[in-house]
Amino acid sequence: MATTKARSKKPSPDTGTEPKADRPHMPGYGVPVGKKGMLAWSHVTERMTAAQNYWVATVSPDGHPHATPVWGLWVDDKLYFGGGPATKRSRNLQQNPVACIHLESGSDVLILHGEVRPIAGLAPELIARLIDLSGEKYGYRPKPEEYEAPGGFVFTPGVVLAWTQFPKDATRWTFTQEV
């Protein structure tokens, strides 16, 4: 599992540069060695932007996995989503910020490993953008103060895996930033 990698590398979506692309290490599955046929990062951004539902997998303090579907907004290589502060997902994330995000398809696959933090102190311009995007995507326009209430989260990827024709186009992206 990529949990160790997600914790040891600082994600850098804010830099405006694409993450490093290579092939995932999957012994025995015939994943090609070269870069020919790998997916473009735009495949990830397009799928994440268009998705209606995102599966968020968290881990409870006693080590039990928990997965729930959520609505969300993919903006600047980050996923913004919410949920009540008393939900199991929210309580798990308060104890352990590591999460895994999946989309619904088992054939056009995206798997994102990274960390989640509570939304707090967002710039007014970003809040306005999130409100507009939510209105367009879901027909729901949250009030600006809802982005300061408990239960809102932002997921930052550390490692992303994707494929549409496994194993031929299996691709891994890694966000790295010098500390």
Unreliable stretches covering 5 or more consecutive residues: 1-15
The percent range for helix content is 10-25%
Seen as an oligomer or otherwise, the chain set is single chain
Q: Mean pLDDT, rounded to whole units?
A: 89
User: How is the main sheet built?
Assistant: 9 strands, antiparallel
Outline type: globular
Alpha carbon gyration radius:
16 Å
- Number of DSSP E strands: 9
Structural class: alpha+beta
Q: Count every helix, treating DSSP H or I runs of 4 or more residues as helices.
A: 4
Structural features, described:
By secondary structure, this protein is α+β, with helices and mostly antiparallel strands. Helices cover about 20% and strands about 30% of the residues. It has helices spanning about 5-10, 40-50, 90-95, 125-140; strands spanning about 20, 55-60, 65-70, 70-75, 80, 100, 110-120, 150-165, 170-175. Strands 1, 2, 3, 4, 5, 6, 7, 8 and 9 form a nine-stranded antiparallel sheet that branches. A hairpin with a 2-residue loop joins β4 (about 70-75) and β5 (about 80). The radius of gyration is 16 Å and the shape is globular. The model is unreliable at about 1-15 (pLDDT under 50).
Attribute tags:
179 residues, alpha+beta, nine-stranded antiparallel beta sheet, 9 strands, 22% helix, globular
In a few lines, what is going on in this structure?
The protein is of the alpha+beta class and 179 residues long. It is 22% helix and 31% strand. The relative contact order is 0.26.
